[in-house]
Design a protein that fits this description.
Elements (H helix, E strand, L loop, with lengths): L1 E2 L8 E3 L8 H18 L15 H4 L7 H16 L27 H25 L13 H17 L2 E3 L3 E11 L6 E9 L4 E3 L17 E10 L2 E8 L8
Antiparallel strand pairs: 1-4, 2-4, 3-6, 4-5, 5-7, 7-8
Helix pairs in contact: 1-5
Length: 250
Amino acid sequence: MRTDARGHGRTSRTRPRAAVLAAGLLAAGLAATVAATLATGGPASWLNAAPPTSSPESTGTGGDTGPGNADNTHDNAARKSATKTPEPLPPVSPVPLSVPAPTPSPLTDEVHSIRAADTAIDSLVAANNEILQRADGGTQGLQNIAAGFVWGELQALATERAQLGYRQVGEATIRSVTARAVDLEASPPTVVLDVCVDATGVDIVDANGQSLRGLLYDPGSPTLNVYGAQYLDGLWKIATHEIPDSAPCA
């Protein structure tokens, strides 16, 4: 059964709950910052100078075999010991996202499917909010609520923020959610949701705490985000995302 925006399956809700700035909304604004960062280049402190190459005369492996070469061999060994690269520390894995894992359930009717997709949006924006505020690259648990394009979108955003040291301050709010279309006969079954996001209270700061708000894409009003939920492995996961041109909402 397929229901579009004119069908009986359309539902909406309005709520002032805390949510997250849509990833596409921020990604567009950060493009200039990322480009500038890459253009100027970053510090090369990760490059380690190669240890000096020893000649046969300094190592005692060739030339004279007198006492002087023995001293050179000792000095060379000391230099090698002093320039030995320390063992790297084991990587620290970011803690999992604090989004509860959903429980798989059978596919039912339109009403329950819309409700489940709506819940998935709640979980997604909560995870997105946490990813942007923590800015440590952690996305563990995201696979339970996101798939396809949206999963890749948030993975890339998490990595970018961790590398650049950018952190979100404040929260966006979801003004309303409306079911645009439902198709339970599709493969996979889908629910399309119009999500009105108000990000006017959000700022981004760099590693020094300096605001980057001037570089953000800021339409000055709530913006429509269209999310597509898909029924995969017994779960409704958010898989598609777009921001239509000139799409204010209320």
